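ugh ok fine here u go
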Amino acid sequence: MKLLVRNLSRSTTEQELRILFSAHGTVTECNLVLDQATAKSKGFGFVVMPDEKAAKLALSNLHETKVANNKIRVKIAQ
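structure:
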């Protein structure tokens, strides 16, 4: 299941995002969306978790939690 993670701090790294979601299950893919001009984070990214149950658990546990002083939003990617 692919999850969209929004409102990330611009300083949050892919590794930090992977660790955050790995606490709830296996993460097969994790990537931040970067600005092409500056190569800096745009404040959102995607996490892919193959186990749907673990992905839904991560979504419910992490949605609207504080990460690096930002309240992140997690939802199923369309």
